[in-house]
Amino acid sequence: MPTKVAVIQKPPVLLDRDLTIARAVQSIEEAAREGATLLVFPEAYIPGYPTWIWRLKPGGDMALSNELHARLRLNAVDLRGKDLEPLYEVAGKHGVTVVIGLHEIDGGFSRTTLFNTVIVIGPDGKLLNRHRKLMPTNPERMVWGMGDASGLRVVDTPAGRLGCLICWESYMPLARYALYAQGMEIFVNPTWDNGEICLATLRHIAREAGCWVIGTATAFQGNDIPENFPSRDQLFKSDEWINNGDAVVIAPTGAVVAGPLTREKGILYADIDAEAARRARRSLDVCGHYARPDIFSLSVNRRPAGAASRAGRVSVTSHNKTLALSNKTQKAATAKSVLASPRRSGTSPHSGCLAPQPNRISVFYRAGGLSPPRVSRRPALGGCSQSRHALRRLPV
Questions:
Q1: DSSP readout, 267-330?
Q2: Structure pTM?
Q3: Domain 3-280, what architecture?
Q4: Residue 360 phi/psi, 5° resolution?
Q5: pLDDT tens digit sequence for 330-384
């Protein structure tokens, strides 16, 4: 059954969490009135992508960088709190699925580190998934920490099975494949990238995975930056386009069906049907009949990463959704994943074949740091496994 998608590239209120959330609620209301049931926002939408990092000097502008980062931290989202209640409520009110990027603050350990996060809110108004960007790009590493694979999952939505990677994570082939191996039908790429190369990448993913692809950055001009932004006039010109947006929807064949929406602060609409993704894999199914598990095997470390080990239960919850496990449960879930499908074992909310950050992943994972992918010469027992000890294919 077709689903109407709304890709929202309207600008946020930079460095103001509450006003940006209010603006997102208005956009959701507008899209719902148009009949859309899957709504997608850009990367780091709450409270806006830190575009200043590409203009400041690492040493000479340190004081300004510190001030801007402090403001960003104060407006980041702690998923354990109630900052996102307006989004949960409006999603549940209209029965829509919302995918939105945000700055997440670590509320469990340091309580200061930020992550580039994308969340999926279900039509019941509850959190379906949280994914933290695995590898921030270039100066982004001075803003965000590296995420883990605990949220690198494909989730069921009324529109189809949906997975997300943020911006240049779409260039990480092992992360992509970890999502493909979970039967992904819709790939969402909230991003700050745009232009012809970005579009070519998303079209390739659509064809490679045999899935729908939805991508968008934020259509953003200098005059969208609030007047109270420090050194605004020195860093940005009022009429310049800082980002073109380029919201786009691509079919599983690789054909563009809507967009790109360039330099328009609006909403792009399109109809998608998950059945088209299934049909596209008749000729090319890179995790099925077009795979060679007798030669290649992807192994994944899906354990949630933490800065410290604590006795007792360590959990992060938001809107009745558990995002982490006790240490004991984590170990049990990891052990059981060798023997059972995570979808059937019921041991972990992070079940699935998940790809971690680069220093934790290789073909046949090896402890002790980064190992380059290598070809297995072992008998055909592989596929996409859950544990470094697992050599046989596990259902996903």
A1: EEEEEE-HHHHHHHTTT--TTTTT--TTT--EE---PPP-SS--SS----EETTEE----HHHH
A2: 0.80
A3: 4-Layer Sandwich (3.60)
A4: -130, 10
A5: 444 433 333 233 333 333 333 333 333 334 333 333 333 344 444 444 444 334 5
| Angle at 325 (CA atoms; ends 323, 327), nearest 5 degrees | 150
Three-class DSSP category at 24: helix
Domain locations along the chain: 3-280
| pLDDT tens-digit map of 230-260 | 999 999 999 999 999 999 999 999 999 999 9
Using the CB atoms, write b or e for 105-123: b if 16+ within 10 Å: bbbbeeeebbbbbbbbbbb
Which amino acid is it at 280? A
User: Tokens 């996102």 correspond to what residue?
Assistant: 84
Give the alpha-carbon dihedral of 119, 123, 126, 127, to 10 degrees.
-20
* Residue 340: Cβ-neighbour burial (10 angstroms; 0-12, 13-18, 19+): middle
**Structural contact between residues 363 and 297, judged by C-beta atoms closer than 8 angstroms:** yes
Three-point CA angle 120, 124, 130, nearest 5°: 20
CA distances to 274, 310, 356 from 172, rounded to whole Å, are 24, 32, 11
Q: Mind telling me the catalytic residues?
A: 43, 133, 167
Other beta carbons within 10 angstroms of residue 10's beta carbon come to 21
Euclidean distance between CA atoms 272 and 280, whole angstroms: 13
One-letter amino acid of 109: F
Integer angstrom CA distances of residue 42 from 48, 223, 333, 336: 9, 19, 33, 36
For the record, the structure tokens of 325 come out as 């496990």
- Smallest CA-to-CA distance from 37 within 154, 122, 119 is with 122
Terminal Cα distance for the chain, rounded: 24
HEC string of 239-261?
Answer: CCEEECEEEEEECCCCCEEEEEE
CA 99 – CA 163 distance, rounded (Å): 10
Q: Which of 121, 108, 190 is nearest to 155 (CA)?
A: 121
Q: Let me know the angle formed at the C-alpha of 117 by 223 and 355, rounded to the nearest 5 degrees.
A: 140
Question: Residue 297 is which amino acid?
Answer: S
